[in-house]
Design goal:
Length: about 280
């Protein structure tokens, strides 16, 4: 049948676009070499970051097998809400899959994951989201009583982010007051979120990424309302470009990343501008 030829799996042109080389060597060049360092390691797509979904990467984001199964089914959980191109995957694919198929996929992706995820101990964030109908975010601890006077340092720092050790006094952090003023009405004074309306910020996966890009794109450009799996939904989020300047957005980002992501507070006004420009 002509299978053993130089053109087999070597790609071609279809309707004016290139179908890539999907031979083993071609897949390796595209980052799909299972034994290579890039396999499941993430990349940039349409100006935002597709994160590392290796077992270790998923553990850093707060996922275990059960939690990832639920996230693929619903598109939401303690780790946040599916957005950007991943929402299309949920809408057109994963929410329609059988539970056994979702569990098999999650089992494959988390097969070598550490037994304890980094985000759980202090924040009370589990990855055990169940299907449909819960009155609170599954696995998310109840909000504290810190109110305006505190609310920081809920999540242990991620390895490699030594700068994220603490906010000395949360009340003095300018980003804290910006959060209270423009974010807390939807996401909760202590980042606990509002079920069926707005995701939690405490332990949100976008705050635990090494790059702040995805979070900055959401803050600057906003997010659309989402119809999720299992009858779940999330309201639209407005963009804050125009209401906040880039320095204020950087202050807000640094507060969120340090307080509830365990990552470094190194976002600058220039970082904000670059993230916004990347998706315009």
């Amino acid at each position: 049948m002509g299978m053993i030829t130089s053109r087999y799996l070597g790609g071609t042109e279809i309707e004016g676009v290139e179908a890539p080389d999907i031979s083993p060597a071609g897949l390796a060049r595209l980052g799909f070499d299972r034994e290579g360092s890039r396999y499941l390691g993430g990349t940039e797509i349409e100006g935002v970051e597709a994160p590392d979904i290796s077992p270790a990467g998923l553990a850093r984001l707060g996922f275990d097998r059960e939690g990832l199964t639920a996230y693929l089914r619903i598109g939401a959980g303690p780790q946040g809400v599916m957005n950007f191109s991943m929402y299309d995957v949920l809408h057109n694919s994963t929410r329609h899959l059988a539970e056994a198929d979702l569990a098999a996929m999650a089992g494959y992706l988390t097969s070598s994951a550490p037994t304890a995820t980094i985000a759980t101990a202090q924040a009370g964030i589990g990855a055990n989201a169940k299907a449909g109908g819960s009155s609170s975010w599954p696995g998310l601890s109840q909000p504290s009583t810190s109110s305006l006077a505190g609310g920081a340092k809920d999540v242990a720092p991620i390895a490699g982010h030594a700068a994220a050790t603490a906010i000395p006094d949360p009340r003095s952090a300018p980003g804290r007051w910006l959060y209270v003023a423009v974010c807390a009405g939807c996401h909760g004074i202590d980042g606990e979120g509002v079920p069926h309306t707005a995701p939690p910020m405490r332990g949100n996966a976008s705050l635990r990424l090494a790059s702040p890009r995805n979070m900055l794109v959401a803050v600057t450009m906003g997010l659309e309302e989402r119809d999720l799996g299992g009858g779940e939904a999330m309201q639209a989020m407005p963009g804050f470009t125009g209401l906040l300047d880039d320095r204020q957005i950087a202050d807000l980002a640094n507060y969120l990343r340090i307080a509830w992501g365990g990552t470094a507070g190194d976002v600058t006004a220039e970082t904000v501008r670059q993230a916004r420009d990347a998706v315009r």
